[in-house]
Amino acid sequence: MYLINRDKNRIEKLEQRVFQELGFRERDNLQEWIANEPQIFGEDLLVIQKEFSGFDDTKERLDLLALDKQGDLVIIENKLDDTGRDVTWQALKYASFCSGLSKENIRKIYQQYLDKADPGVHAEEKLSEFYENSDYEDLILNKGLTQRIILVAAQFRKEVTSTVLWLMNYKLRIQCFRVTPYEMGDQLFLNVEQIIPTKDAEDYMIGIAEKVQDDLETQTELKHRHIIRKEFWTRLIQHMNTKSTLYQNISPSIYNWLGAGSGVRGISLNFGISKTYGRVEVYIDRGDKAENEDIFDQLFAEKEKLEQNFGGALIWERLETKRACRIKSEIDKNVFIKENWEEVIEFMTDSMVQLEKTFKPILAEINSTLKSHA
């Protein structure tokens, strides 16, 4: 690896180092780096546990357990300077153990991790956020034999790479990443390189075949939720149309939210439902995090006045780790229990009418400012 020196129009070679010589350790350092920055593998991963040992009748511990955007479990085994001979077998054992984890198992595992890493945060909410605010009940996690393996080390022994390449012929999804530390003066650099499969080859590889049949119980439950939601939205829109024209051109859907425009691009007035709440919200997502936060901050500066006009307290969520921001009001009710519908629909429609009256004037002012600065 080389450093570009613009002033001299030259390149300067960085000194390749060994982790142990630099005083770095596998668990304390490399594992922590990956856990806090899993995007080093070139994709969005959600780490749900470290040093996981929740396997029946064994004291085995896998280094990191993560989820990818497809809902598949990713087993991450990291070695420091050398893989050793047994890392492939070790990872395969962990993948086989993890293949039996249900969605509820995964939620509990992640909650245990959050209780230590981020107390007070709920696994269901974080999972929903990771999957683009999908309803947790709709998520399908660890479906069939879709588990993946990622091996990380500075040096890979031939017996490891040979075994990995052979296993890939049987459509096991395994990746090997070489991590190399470099030094220049008092600065240290880390290079992360995918060596198996090579990136170019990976683009042309055939993905793993899914099971012929989906889990019947999961699919039946999902279909049932879609039917319930569409029926709920139909009733809510009918009732809403007696109070406001905001949703008169919106059709019922099978999803857990409905949105109407606020008059400002990227800002919508949404309904949201789940097994735990009925929600109305101002949802801010103009495609730029800084701009979203600036609009949120302008609104938050008028919090007292806005809540007075709304007629009650609102929940203000800047969503620091996400691009969007949200201002909401909720009722704690299970929408999938029809006996709750009358109360929930009354709350949501009344709240949406107030939300529109409260926020449309100030959003119009903000919109004028945005246009004048465009």
UniProtKB/TrEMBL annotation:
Name of the molecule in the record: DUF4268 domain-containing protein
Entry-linked InterPro entries: DUF4268, tRNA_endonuc-like_dom_sf
Molecular functions (GO terms): nucleic acid binding
Native organism: candidate division KSB3 bacterium
Domain named DUF4268: residues: 228-362
Pfam families: DUF4268
Residues annotated as signal peptide: none
Top-rank taxon: Bacteria
